[in-house]
Amino acid sequence: SVRSSFVWYRKNLLFDSPENATSIVSADLGLNISINNLPEPVVIEHDGVFAKHGLSPANKQSLTVNKTQLSCVYWDFDTGGWETAGCWLNYTSDKPVCLCSHLTNFALLVTTIQVPSGTALSVVSDIGCVISIVGLFLTIIAHLLHRDTRNRRPAKILLNICSNLLIAYFIFVVGVSQTSNRTGCKVVAVLLHYFFLTTWCWMSVYSYDMYMSLVKVFHKSQHQFLQRTSLFAYVVPFVIVVISASVTMGY
C-alpha cells in the first residue's frame, strides 16, 4: 500500500512569490520521486473563490473595471516560482476547479486586473436613455389625454410599446451598474431581457396591424385582436426568459 499525505497551507508565507496565491494544497505519496503524467488528473476544488466583475471608482474622472483572473498553478522548486505546466482550470464549473496531471504543491492564483474605462461613452448612454425616457413618457401622456386617439387599436398598441420600452430604459439606467450584488445583477438582467422582448413582440404586432390596414384593406376585422396579441406579447417573452434562466442557471 502507498501512504499519501495532504497539507493545506492557510497562508503563502512559505512560498516567496509576488503573486497572490490562495488555497495552497500539497499532495505527496512519500516515495521521494516525481509523480507526473497521471492517467487521471488530480481534482482540486476551491470553495469561496469566485471571479468577480464590478465597477469601482478609481478617481473622479474615470471608472476602473476590476476583473479577477484565476490560474491553476504549482510550485516549481527549481525556478522558485509558480508554474502552470500540467495544470488547468475547469471553466465549466460553478466554482474554480483545478486539474493537474502531477503531484506537488497546488495553488490557485488570484490576480485582480484593473482596466481603465472612460466615462464619455457611459455619459452619452445615460443622456440618451434619459432623453428616450422623457420622450416615451410624453408620448404616453399625449395619447392618454387625446380621447379619440387612445381608443383606436394602433394607439393602444403604441402605448404598449412605449410603456414596455420606458420600463426597460428605466431599469437599465437604474440597475446597469449594480454588479456588486450577484442577486441584484441577475434580477436586473432578467427584467431587461423580459421587457426588451415584450417591446419587440409589440413592435411585431404593430407591424402586422399596419400590414393588415394598408395592404389587406378590405380584410375582416379580427375578433379580440388585442386580447390575442397581448397574450402573445407578454406570455411568449415570459416563457423565453424562464427557459433561458433555467438552462443557464442565471445571467
Automatic annotation (TrEMBL):
Name this polypeptide is given: G-protein coupled receptors family 2 profile 2 domain-containing protein
Domain GAIN-B: 1-116
PANTHER family according to UniProt: G-PROTEIN COUPLED RECEPTORS FAMILY 2 PROFILE 2 DOMAIN-CONTAINING PROTEIN, G_PROTEIN_RECEP_F2_4 DOMAIN-CONTAINING PROTEIN
Any one Gene Ontology BP term: cell surface receptor signaling pathway
Segments traversing the membrane: 123-145, 157-176, 188-208, 229-249
Gene Ontology CC terms: membrane
Lineage: Eukaryota, Metazoa, Chordata, Tunicata, Ascidiacea
Molecular functions per Gene Ontology: G protein-coupled receptor activity
Domain G-protein coupled receptors family 2 profile intervals: 121-251
